[in-house]
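Ticket #4471: structure output looks truncated?

Reporter: J.K.
Steps to reproduce: submitted the chain below (80 residues) through the standard prediction queue, then opened the result file.
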Amino acid sequence: MTAEDLRSLIAAGLPCEHLEVDGDGRHWQTVVVSAEFAGLRTIQRHQRVYATLGARMQTDEVHALSIRTFTPAEWASQSN
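Returned output as attached by the reporter:
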């Protein structure tokens, strides 16, 4: 699994205004900004991201995934 593979999977399953993926092939860090996260708790947001990866999380294709999620408004205030 490459960073681009992971980015493509997340982007295909979740409309993202901003998406960062970094890692070493087993341990990944992501920043996902999506309007879909509005009104959702952190765990629900993470579940939405995990859903884009399907069985890859269970088969160890993605061993570890750190997720930071934001709505576009949260991201804008984070960036300022």
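Triage note (M.O.): checked the attachment and the full token line is present. The first strand starts at residue 18 and ends at 23.
Status: closed, working as intended.
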